[in-house]
Amino acid sequence: MKGREFLMTAGITALGTLFITPLAELMKLSKEELLRLHAEAGTIPYGRLNKFAEQMVKFKSHVVGYPCNLAFNLKDFYTWFVNSGLCNLHMNNVGNPRKESSYLLNTHKFENEVIDYFASLYGFDKGDYWGIVTHSGTDGNMHAMYFGVNYIKSKVKTLPIVYVSAEAHYSIKRIADVMNLEIRIIPALPMGQMDTGEFEKVLDPSKPALVVIAMGTTFKGAIDDHRAVLKIINKKKPVAYYIMLDAALFGGFLPFSEYRDVVNRKKFFFHSIAVSGHKFFGSDEPMGIFITAKEVMDAQNPFKVAYLNDAVPTITCSRSAVGALKFWWNLTRNGQREYEKQACHILKTAQYLKKRLDELNYPAWLNPMSNIVFFKRPADWIMKKWDLAPEYDERLGGELAHEVVMQHENKRIVDEFINDIKKYLRKGNNKS
Ligand SMILES: *Cc1c(COP(=O)(O)O)cnc(C)c1O
After folding, report:
1. pLDDT (tens digit, 9 = 90+) per residue, 135-150?
2. Does the Cβ of 218 fall within 6 Å of ligand 1?
3. Which residue among 64, 130, 198, 409 is least crowded, i.e. fewest CB within 10 A of its CB?
4. 3-class DSSP state for residue 109?
5. Burial letters 176-197, b for 16+ CB under 10 A, else e
6. Total-model pTM
7. Backbone angle region of 127, left / alpha / beta, with phi > 0 → left and psi within -120 to 50 → alpha
8. pLDDT of 383-420, one tens digit each?
9. Pocket lining: 272 vs ligand 1, CB cutoff 6 Å
């Protein structure tokens, strides 16, 4: 149905059948045409929708190029959600979840429990942090940078320079752009880690520094050398500094692996961390978490917003209440032991994929602590069939692609993928 038709239909439905004749005259449509439109109004085209849904679900096991867990299950959540009547309610987590909200229909209690759980995992002490369930990893990064700038402004009067690796997620550069901050992009080593020698060279100690640690770069899954960065900061002593972890994907599984220390601020200091909720944990819609030290929160100067009880530290006003509730459901349903199993599964499966590619002498790489295997870009049909993401790096031979091994991938799927690579190799690396 076209836009105009739809508007007419909706209008007619609202007015009811009684007005059809005068409307027909007004709109210069025949009475029959109007009756037909009226009959269609509000009718959901289930045939079309079912076809669409079927296609999406079928594609699931072949989506291995992006960092989203597709093995979660929210069916019981939605059954409960509908039966409880909450599906016909607008809940909204606007405001500060740690303060009494004037909008009573919210899930702040559950949101706080999610944040409490993760704060302790990331090494924040009880009562020494603040955080929210965000819209996404990017939303978390945005809050991390905004909070960081306010924190630095509370110490010195100048704006910080943003230091970030060339291979960090583009959202950092985008947000620095939006905030009009000076940014120094540090070259990355061939395996994707920030070149800390370069960082040391360009770090200007006369200006405050906002340093982004990429905790798993988007394409190569590289973890910046946090220890070296801290050492350089201690040595060059910038007038003020703020360190944020962009741990969108890795912040999900690392706390449940033997590498948990790298996301523990007691071991490697940071002021704030942003993680995606739909990547490792799995969710039908984007979400995330942002947690920062109380010291940073206390340096914020929230704008007075009387109608929201005066304290809105967030950039975004309305925030998803259902998202926070789903996250809480996910944590409660799975728990630490299940996440440990999943973390082990994705790391092991990534190693298996790397091993299988090595056996074929197919150029492939895997960083330590990572579930991302990157390799020479195969034929287009493989790229499409497996929904692989492309990248280019001269230092590694040019055209690349990667697989992000998530919970829905297993050895059987890896083997099927490897068979495709074999087919491609037999054809003599023919691109098509
Ligand atoms: C995915 C990703 C982001 C962006 O997260 P969204 O939840 O997609 O907004 C940021 N940083 C890194 C390292 C990522 O992998």
Report:
1. 999 999 999 999 999 9
2. yes
3. 198
4. helix
5. beebebebebbebbebbbbbbe
6. 0.89
7. left
8. 999 999 999 999 999 999 999 999 999 999 999 999 99
9. no
